[in-house]
């Protein structure tokens, strides 16, 4: 083998690692003379003074979060009062289709098993007196049975 480099690289690879030629010398650029600093006293007459509309434009009235909460709270209270007044006018307990029977002769039975039927409840409570009607409470939206029943006694 002839002459070899201490790193063991071939001449083709050594060409990739050769340094670049030195930079050409250029004389430093000439220093330019900058214009002198001047004052701004000649422009003070153009400034806006207090009282001018350009000096400080009026700030727009922005609602603070506390004011917004208070406003929303008041509007909801007003809507609630209006709804209560409407519901009070519509309320007629004598024409309620869901209300049947005397409330003083109604018994509410809670915590019952879901498999308990109306006939089982009626059979158990007839020992205490005649039962006019047994109602199983259902959810109006889903139709699923709840764990409480209502008995109407005579």
Automatic annotation (TrEMBL):
Domain spans labelled RRM: 107-142
Name the keywords, alphabetized.
Nucleus, Ribonucleoprotein, RNA-binding
Bias class Pro residues marks the residues at 19-28
Q: For the region Disordered, what residue ranges are annotated?
A: 1-103
Is Cell inner membrane one of the keywords?
Answer: no
Composition bias (Polar residues) maps to 1-10
Which one GO biological process term can you cite for this protein? mRNA splicing, via spliceosome
Compartment list: Nucleus
Biased-composition ranges for Basic and acidic residues? 60-90
Record-given protein name = Uncharacterized protein
What is the organism field in this record?
Brassica cretica
